[in-house]
Amino acid sequence: MLYNKVRILCWVMTGPKNLETKAHHVKATWSRHCNVVLFMSSEKDDNFPTVGLDTKEGRDQLYWKTIRAFHYVHQHHLEQADWFLKADDDTFVVVDNLRWLLSNYTPDRPIYFGKRFRPFAKQGYMSGGAGYVLSKEALQRFVAGFESKVCSHTTSVEDLALGQCMEKMGVEAGDSRDSEGRETFHPFVPESHLTDKFSKSFWYWNYCYYPIVEGPQCCSDLAVSFHYVNPELMYTLEYLTYHLRAYGYRYRYNPPLSENAAHLKSHPARKPPERANSTILQVEKKL
Predict the structure, then answer these.
(1) What DSSP element (H or E) covers 207?
(2) Which residues contact 244 (CB under 8 A, 6 or more apart)?
């Protein structure tokens, strides 16, 4: 199974004021499917727990938090995973779909994936809100970039700054679309992509690297992420993803694993999370 072949460390960017209102619900839902999960905050909290990055809070601190978080992961958890995902505390990630996407690649390839934007970087960069995932080699190059001073804190715009560093360090901006050309990482909630119409003056049209598709074909059947997800929707998406099913339904999109997946090294088994209803039942207690 891919759980032990495509090991994903998920680190979630949060803050002291968001632990109970946002991060708790990430902890109770999708992050349980990661091989390793860390919550990164400006302050250490042993009870939650969080890793303290010794930064301030605020949008102008996002790249500092990202730099320090990836350095922490590199120092303490490099050998515990093959891929390293950054997500916000209002991002929902279908980790098993991410494993399928990543099974087409090896972690020693310098590459990263996400919702690809196009301005300000030759190869584009990945949206911070939709989350992005670095291969082990990409993470090592990111850290090396700061050690060599090729990369630095050039702007507080976290996703752009990281993308510019990736480009300087020879890390490829990967194509995360599925085999039918549908996007897997999404910067908004599902309904925005499925049913809303984006105004032609909306910034999104000028930022997307690939053509925007509105309506049901917007999103892959093996979608990986959505952003601006509130706590109620976190539990709804967890239920729809891991519990609800139509009896006897044959999936219309069921691509086989790539040949590469068969050659990936299987690591010592860790018990995958149980997909019981316990996480859903916590809604009444915590919302």
Answers:
(1) helix 204-207
(2) none
